[in-house]
Structures are given as structure tokens and as C-alpha cells.
Amino acid sequence: SAAHPRAEAQRRGGAPLPPTHERIPSGAAMGKAKGGKKARPAPLPPAKGLGGAALDADDEEFLKRGKELRAQGARHHANGEFAAALRCFEQCGTLLPAGHPDAASVACDRATCHLRLGAPDKALKDANMAMRLAPTSARAAQLRARAHESKGHLHQALDDVVALRKAHPEMEEARVYEERLRKGVEAMNGAKAGKKHEAAARAMGMPLPGAKGKAVAQQQQERARPPPTLKIRCVLEDDVRMLEVPAQGTFEDVKKAIRAKFPGAGTLAIKYEAENGELVTVAGLADLRVAIQTAAMSAMREAAAAQAEAKRLAKENPDAPPPKMPQLGLPYVSLHLVRVVRGGAIAPVGDAIIAAEDGEECEFDDYIFDFADLFRQQLGIDPDGHVSIHSEGLERCQEALETVATSEEAQPLFDEAAGKFQEVAALAMFNWGNVHMCCARKRAEGGKAKAAKDKKGADGGADASAQDDPLAALSPEEALAMDAKLMEAEAKYAESLRIKADFYEALVAWGQQRFERAKLFQAQEGAAAAAIARPAPERGFSAGERAAAVDELYVSAIEKYTAALEMLPGVAERQAAAQKISAEKAAAAAVRAGTATPEAAAATASEPVQDLVKEVTPQVLVMWGNVLYEQSAILVRKGDKSDDWQDLLVDAVKKFKEAGCGVGDINGALSRHASKDAASVVAARGVTIEEEKKDDAAQDQKDSAAVTASPAVAAASG
């Protein structure tokens, strides 16, 4: 295959093969090296993608294909197919970029294959390349020593092994190899001229050079040759195609190869021409062998006739060059392919046919349909009878469905289904509003980060309290964008309640939206002024001043919370009834299916359902307390001298206690209040924050709900 243009000057590599520890015999193992100094190889082109520019799509594809060739070569090497392995490694080397870290490894792989194939010169060339790319590679040094040994250069091989031992003294294999080479060198030095290589071979335990060594090398080359293949000439009507299959393959291999050569040809029968000219069906491997023998006999007769003709021509014209004689070997086999459904032929069965591919259309002769029609008439079969029965069944099923759908028992089911769809629609609008609330809170988080940064660099002063409010750190544009998101959330919550009037989750979320909008107006005068400038139906409140708008939003939030709490008992009762009915149906179904006994099913159906009121009420009370707490803090910041802020603070603490918040959370909120006397004011009003120890189930439920609600108290200081 053609080399990659950037890699023409170098052969590079893939996956490393394990170094062979076996001795590599060679027919000319002790031959002398030829003289002359070889030219230095061209310098490597600059590496690309190795610490430099990023690899492009072509480079990545080349590396991927190189990795595949690398793995394929390793498999060939493990199976003893060294010639095939060498081809894979050579193709792999052309695909990797110059300077690739695996180039030395692949050069070693090629050297190993060359040694196995009895080509020490090429092995030495690849080993030298590996040493240039990786001078400290133990494998490259060992392979170069083996290449020198195969060429008969024992002194050079010993020098490589000695250098390898110095660099890697822990290698036991190198020590054994060095001892063996020293024996050969000593025997060579002490032998007479002409007997040196023979003496070295005996000392090292290698086969003697000469006929025996050549025979061993020839056996290796024979094993390295690719396996023989069988050529088949396939004839389908006027289409003639050649294909090759392994000579030791199976009959299924032949059928697959034919199908690949003739895709879309339909179902085929395989036949060969016998000596008498008849077409014989090939139904298995035995018939295929007969076809091969027939082709071989025909080829031998043709060869004998060609030889006789050559001898006759040689006698008639002795000075003419001898004609080229045909080489005997595996002859190609001629097979005839017959379409099974053409011309009225009766189809063979079993292995005698090549089945049509999936989705492939087959042709049927008219006589087949005529015979089927005659068969139907004789037996009195109505071909359309099943269609009539099917239509009648559908009509009766439709009548039954209409009767059931219009019955009085079906109406509650329709009402229940309508309620489910109504709840899903309301839930969709509710979640849509939550998305807008998340966007608004995200902007508030940005203001919080900015406030923390400003506070870190501030040295106190009149604006120190403003820096504690993250909403005050928002820019006018960010405040307007946050208010717009809050208004969009309010619209979705209102739509959710319009769809389902008792959707208490939307009321709670709407109250929280009013609370956060009031806090935004208190911190951002510009956002409040922009909202007040809009028409009353669009602003979400009726007040015409900032302070009045803030108070109105806080009052509206409390109204939403109050309405949600009033709505909870009815919703909880309906949900409990629905859950009980569902549990009873599930228990009955389990009894019918045999997966539960009646007693176990009854026990499951009688399990207490979730108490929605106890679960949701504490969370709403905490939000309610947050609103009162924030109103109290605003009055203190304004310098209000009345007792209103104290009343609001005491009411907030009562809500926190009713929700079951922890003592630490409440005390923490009081310590962060705008008034330093917040804790003493609450104590003076007779409100005790310490919890009363109770062990009943109601207190456990309350404490469980407070775990979720407690973090909101810390956020009340805002």
C-alpha cells in the first residue's frame, strides 16, 4: 500500500510484540558481512501533534488505522504467520507521524519478523532504526545483537550484549546470552581458518552452516508463505466472476464467497460440469472435492497435450525458443450457478442452495399460484374468510366499548381522568413559573457575590449596612431583569391556579414570589420606580409609592400563605381517600395475581397514608415568619419609634416556634436582626424560645418537618 506522504522517508510502528527469547536459526547464519559503509538515513521530519499543533481529523484517522494494523500484526505473529505480521507492521509504520513514541517499538516488531523469516540484513536495518529512535531500548539492543549473530558477526553481537548488560544489569536473559556469545567468540578465535564458523556453531549449540542450515531456513520460509487458495470461476447466466477461498476452507466458506460476489441474485443452486457434460448439483464438501478433482484431471490432460505439442514443435524447429509450459498446481474450478425459481426448476433443499438475503425479492412462476388456487377450490377454503371474521370482531368490540363508555359506572372514571389531566396541566404551569423564579434567584446570587466582594474591601461607614444586603449590590439593569423574571413567574402561578383552584403549591410559591419582590423593591429604588411607572394591572400591586408597594407585597404574601393553609385540609382529605382507593386496588390485583395473600394485601391496604397537613404546614409557617421578620427589620432601619416592629418580630418568632424550628436557628435569626435588642424584646413579651421536651408521635412529626424548614429561618435576615 502507498505510504502516507508525510511519512515516505521513514517506517514507523504500532503495538509492540513480546521479544522472542528463542534462538533464530538461519541458513547463512555465519556468513561474513559485506564491505562498504552504508549511507546515514535521512533525518526524521518534524513531529506533528507531539507537543506542537493539535492533530487534525486525518491524523486521528491514520493513528486509529495504525492501531488496528498493529493489533492485527500481533495476532498474526502469535499464530506464526510472520509474513502477514510483517505486512501489517510495515503498513502501520507508514501511517504514524514522524517522531511518534511507538515508532521504535514497531521497528523492533519488524526486526523480529525479519529474523523469523530468515532475513537478518533487513532485521539489522530495522534494529538500527529502533536504536536511533530509542537509544536506551533494551529490546532494540537485543534484536540488533540477534541480527548480528544471524549474519555471523559474533563480535558485534557480543559488543551489543555487553552494552545492554551495562545499561540493564538486572536482565538475566542478557547474561545468559552474553555467556553463549562468549563461548562462540572463544571457539572462533581458537579454530583454524575456514573452520571458525563451524567451531562457533558447535560451541553455541547452533545448527551447522551448509545444507542442514539451508534446509532449516527453507522450512521457515515455507511456513511463512501465505496459505494456498482455491480459485473458483462462477458463471451465472451471462455473468462470469472469479473468487478465491482458502484451500482448507469449508463448503460454507464457498457459499459465503459466492453470495458476496453475487449480491441480490436470489436463491441459487451450485452445479459443476461432469466429464460427460452434465451439470451435477454440488450439495456439500464431498461434491465440491469431486468438482476439484474433475478440474484437476482436465488441467493435467491439457498440460500433457501442451507438452506433446511442445515436443513436436521442438523437433520441427530446433532453433526456436522453447514455449512456456503451464505450471501445475491447484486448478481453478468452474461452477455454474442456477436461479432456483427460474424456468420451472424444482429447488434443491438443504446445503445444495444458497438462500436469498433478507429483504431480497423472489420470483414465483404462475403455475405455483395456479396450483395453490386449485388446492383451495378442492378443499373449499375461503381465502377472505378470516378478513370477514376480523372485521366482525372489531365491530362487536366497538359496540361493547360504546356501551361501556355511555354507562353510569364509566362517568366517575372519566371525571377522575379529567382531574388527572387538569392536575398535570396545572403542574406544568407551576413548574414553568419555578423556572422563572430560579432565573431571578440566580441574579440575586450574583448580587450576593458582588456584595461580599465590596464588603471585603470596605472599611465601614454609612453604607456598611447596605453592603450587607446582596440585592442592594445589583446594578439597575440586573434589578430590572430580576423583577421581570419575578413578574413572569407570578403570571404562571396565576395560570396554574386558574386551571386548578385548589392547587396549594402554586399559592405557596406565589406568596414566596411576592416576598422576594418586596425585598427587591426595598433594596432597589430604581426597580420599584420602574414598576410603579407601569399601569396598575401590569405592575402586580396598586400602591403608587415605593414604601406602600413594599408593604402591600408583604401583606399579599401573608394572604397567599393563609389561603394555602386553609386549603390544605380539604386537599389532604381528598388525596388520602385517593391513595386509600389505589392501595385497595393494588392489593386486590396482587391477590388475583397470586403474589400476595389476602391477609398481607389487607394489611398493606390499611397502612396509614401520608399526612399532608403535618408535612406542609411547618414549611408555610416558616415562610410566613420570614415575611413578618423582614417587615420588622425594615421598620427598625427606617428608625420607627413605635412598637410595630416589636409586634411583628414577636409574631415571627411565634411562627418559627409553631413550625418547630430549632432554638439555635431562632436565636441566630434574632442576633442578625436590625435591632440589637431583638432577643430582649422577645423575652420581655413573654415568648420563651426554649423547647418543651415531648416524646409523643406528634412532636416527632413536627421535628421532622422542622429539619426541612429550619434553613429558611437563617435566610430571614436577608
Integer average pLDDT: 76
Tell me the number of strands. Answer: 6
Specify the oligomeric state.
single chain
Largest sheet: 6 strands, mixed
- Judged by helices, strands and strand pairing, the structural class is mainly alpha
Shape: flat
Q: Helical stretch count?
A: 26
Span of the ends, CA to CA? 74 Å
Percent range for β-strand residues:
under 5%
Secondary structure: helix percent = 55-70%
Q: Unreliable stretches, pLDDT < 50, 5 or more residues?
A: 1-53, 342-349, 458-467, 693-698, 700-718
> How many whole angstroms does the radius of gyration measure?
47 Å
List the main descriptive attributes of the protein structure presented here.
six-stranded mixed sheet; 5% strand; disordered N terminus; mainly alpha; 63% helix; 6 strands; 718 residues
Characterization of the model:
The chain is mainly α. It is 63% helix and 5% strand. It contains 26 helices and six strands. It has helices at residues 57-78, 82-95, 103-116, 120-133, 138-151, 154-167, 172-190, 196-204, 211-224, 251-261, 285-316, 366-379, 385-405, 410-457, 464-467, 476-499, 504-523, 525-533, 536-539, 546-593, 598-605, 612-638, 644-659, 663-671, 678-684, 697-714; strands at 229-236, 239-246, 268-273, 279-281, 333-339, 353-354. Strands 1, 2, 3, 4, 5 and 6 form a six-stranded mixed sheet that branches. The protein is flat and about 140 Å long. 31% of the residues are buried.
